[in-house]
Amino acid sequence: MTTTNINFQEHRIDRGQGSIYVRDYAGTEPAFVLMHGYPDNLHIYDDLVPHLAAGGRRVVVFDFLGFGDSDKPAGAKYSFEQQLGDLHAVVQSLNLNKIIPVGHDSSGPAAINYAIEYPQHVDSVCLLNAFYMESPTAKYPEFIELFATTSLKALTQAILRSPEQFAWVLGFQRSKFQEHLTDEQKDYYSKFLGPIIDANFRQQPSSGPAFAQMTSQHFDELARNTKRINQMWQINVPVKLIWGETDPYLNYGIARHLSTLLKKPELHVLQAGHWLQVDIPDQVAEVMLARK
Fold this sequence. Notes:
This is Pimeloyl-ACP methyl ester carboxylesterase. The chain is α/β, with parallel strands linked by helices. It has one domain (3-289): Alpha/Beta hydrolase fold, catalytic domain (Rossmann fold), CATH 3.40.50.1820. It contains 13 helices and 8 strands. An 8-stranded mixed β-sheet has the order 1-2-4-3-5-6-7-8, with helices on both faces. The two termini are 27 Å apart.
């Protein structure tokens, strides 16, 4: 079951620097608004969307500016604040009243900060193996650590200019993410997820500039959000933390830590890796659709 079998409306929403690409699947609200992470794009949800749509819910999925099918203008400035703005632009342009922002990986900040800054638009929040703030058990992929270390900018820029070197780094990181997956999950990773990530960087214009700018702000964003603990506690809606327990980086400890800082946490741990929406989309959808 894939999104190719489901009708959706396409939108392009102007963001000043360029437009972002949006897919809107009809259903009842509150809408799930699905957001992707650093190395990928909206296609990481291709197997999850059909399960959510089958539950009768409206689903909106989009590419952040600089990624996927959204514009990648030369000289654009990318930031976590810009991604928060992308989310708000989607909500306004599609006249969404209440949403469930769903953050995976580096879109965790957009999901939580949207609930802090626009509580009138948020029914609940959902995080899938995401980060938000400094956490005692956090370990970040070597690929991200490399590009997030600003003193190594000359090296990382050289890697970005060399398709061969960049491919090698991507290959190394791919093997690390797959270490704890089942054989079936590894096979699907290679057939489905790997090509999504590769295309994000190899197709021109590339997502490389957006990736480089976003990762360079990684540790500063963690520090900024760590200072928002009191505001996190004011989030008065349920926050579902749905975690793949075999993720070697954004591990279960991050979810446990976040759950202690939220007023209404719901913690769910599943047998999957970092991209749990790819590994076990049916189980992830079941948790997302459940209402207390």
